[in-house]
Amino acid sequence: MGKRLKFEDMKAVSYVHVGDKLVNTDELDPEQKKRLANALAVEWMNGLFRGQAVFYVKDRQEESDCHAGVSTGSQ
């Protein structure tokens, strides 16, 4: 029989820029985590639908809830 592979534990850590310093994403407050998730989702959707639609997060001043908006380019 062949040699068994040995699996090692790995830990992935992510950081984001908050102002001018790097902050571990585990240390973000719930509002910051929601904004990060929205930004990542918008980037993914814009890549997926490039040339067909443009996605964005509405300005928080206009809406109290976080909603994503979409523009298809046609008015």
Structure in a nutshell:
By secondary structure, the protein is α+β, with helices and mostly antiparallel strands. It has one helix at residues 30-48; strands at 15-18, 21-24, 54-57, 68-71.
- Uncertain ranges: 62-68
First-to-last CA distance: 66 Å
Structurally, the number of domains stands at 1
Largest sheet: 2 strands, antiparallel
Helix and strand string, N-terminal first?
Answer: EEHEE
Overall, the morphology is: flat
Give structural notes.
This protein is an alpha+beta fold and 75 residues long. The protein has one domain. Helix content is 25%, strand content 21%. The chain is built from 1 helix and 4 strands. It has one helix at residues 30-48; strands at 15-18, 21-24, 54-57, 68-71. A two-stranded antiparallel ribbon has the order 1-2. Strands 3-4 form a two-stranded antiparallel ribbon.
What labels would you give this structure?
single chain, 75 residues, alpha+beta, two-stranded antiparallel sheet, two-stranded antiparallel ribbon, 1 helix, 25% helix
Topology (SSEs and partners):
Elements (H helix, E strand, L loop, with lengths): L14 E4 L2 E4 L5 H19 L5 E4 L10 E4 L4
Antiparallel strand pairs: 1-2, 3-4
